[in-house]
Each structure stands twice: as C-alpha cells, then as structure tokens.
Amino acid sequence: LTWNDDGVSGPGEGNCFFDSAITGHGDTLKLGSSSGTFYSAAVFMYRVACDSTGDDFAEFDDGSGNMAVYDCYVKNAGTGFSVDGIYGGPVYFARNRVGNLSRHSIKITSDSQNVAVYSNTWARPAGQNDAGSTAGQHNFYSPFGGTNSSWRVKNNAIIWRGASGDVVRWDCTMPGLDWDYNATYPSTGRNYTLGSGRGAYTGLAAAQTGLAPLMAHDVAGTSNPFAATITFGSDYTTEYTGSMEWTLDSGSDLVAAGVD
C-alpha cells in the first residue's frame, strides 16, 4: 500500500528539508535517486517528526555521498533507514530516536561505503522479517552477502525487546568497521555477528573478547534505561503513541558511556 509513496523526495544537489512533521507515507525521507538515475549529494534532512510510515523512515538508496538525516523522531515505521547502494559516501544517520519498527533497524541489501551511525536511540518490541514472518527476525540485520566498507557505529543505545533473534546479524562483509561505545539490550543469550568472517558470539562479553578491538567500550543496556517507562505492545502491530522525549535515567549505566 505504501510502495513508491515517498513523503519528501529530495535527490539532487544541495537540498534540505527540516523542522517538519510528516506521517503516513511509504519512505518518509528519500535522499537518493531510484537506481542511481542521477547524482545525489549534499542532501540534508533534519528535525523531522514522524508518527508512522509504511517502509523506510529514511532512504539513502543509490545516493552518492555527503547526505545526512539527524535530530529526528520516528515511530511505527518499517525500518529506521536504508542504504542500498551508496557510491562513496559519507552518509550520516545521527542523533535520532527510533521506536516500534516492524522490520529491521537498518536495511542493508547491497554494497555501501562510508556510512556513519552516531548517537541514535533504537527501542523496539518484537517484529517480523522481510518475508512477513516473525521467524528469523533480528534487530540490526543484513542477509546480504556483499561488501559494506568503512562503517562507523558509535554511541548508540540499541534496545531490542523481541523474545528471540540476534542483537546484530550482519552476514555481509564489513571491512574497516568501527563499532564501539554502544549499549545493547539484551546483552546475554543473543548472538552478535559483525560481518561475514568474524564469527558469531553469544552475549556481549563473548563478543567483546572475540571481536576485539571492536566493541571494546560497549556496555550492557537494559530494557528501559529511561527516566520514564517506554511501553510498547507485545509486538510492532500495536501502535506506539507515547512520547519520543526519551531521557536517560540519571542512574543508568548508559549515562556518560559514549564518546565525543
């Protein structure tokens, strides 16, 4: 129902969209061009609030580089953002708050380079996989077997309340990955796979040992590290209508756990 129904389409050069509220589309923010039909760079979208969207909140697909989405609130979306085909980069997704996704937090199904995922808060109940089934659902997930190079993932709070599935499962090759200073929940009993060839490790402690120096400063998160309780339904089908003004509890281990 929401296929090709873009909220704001801004491919090209030097385009901005900001200080807005938008809801009810497929891809809310589209920064790249479909299938790379023309060059897209210097595209910035920020301070956008979105109550619902059927597919990707932000779609960078087939973009060239120097693009960013930051300081946004999004809830009740399919995925947080998609980077299917980035031709050089950099691409930034930073300081966003993302809640109640139906599929994956980040969609990666083709090669990309120089993607930075900084200082976001992701909070999710149980979801589904791309085939529409709850079986095999993971949080940060890529079933794609290609190459995604020079990714930087730092200062994120990654909260996954699904009853099963991996915290991170990236089956693609991730050369040059810089993953550190993140908080993940659950931190025990679930697998972390940070790219093909690096192995899968059950639990944060095992992952930190096996993937060193990656994840060296990561910390264990909790289901609700916030000052006010964030309440989702049993799965993504229950619309989240609560506040996105998420503030960490002063006693949380996540306070001051990041890096500038």
Task: Describe the protein.
This protein has one helix at residues 204-210; strands spanning 8-9, 13-21, 29-30, 41-50, 56-59, 65-70, 73-77, 79-82, 91-94, 97-101, 106-107, 112-113, 115-118, 121-124, 140-142, 148-149, 152-154, 157-160, 168-170, 178-180, 183-185, 191-194, 201-202, 219-220. The strands form four sheets. Strands 2, 4, 6, 7, 9, 10, 13, 14, 17, 18, 20, 21 and 24 form a 13-stranded parallel beta sheet that branches. It has a five-stranded parallel beta sheet with strand order 1-3-5-8-11, with no helix packed on it. The chain has a four-stranded mixed beta sheet with strand order 15-19-22-23, covered by helices on one side. The mean pLDDT is 91. The termini are far apart. A hairpin with a 6-residue loop joins strand 22 and strand 23 (201-202). The protein is built from one helix and 24 strands. The chain is globular and about 45 Å long. The protein has 260 residues and is mainly β.
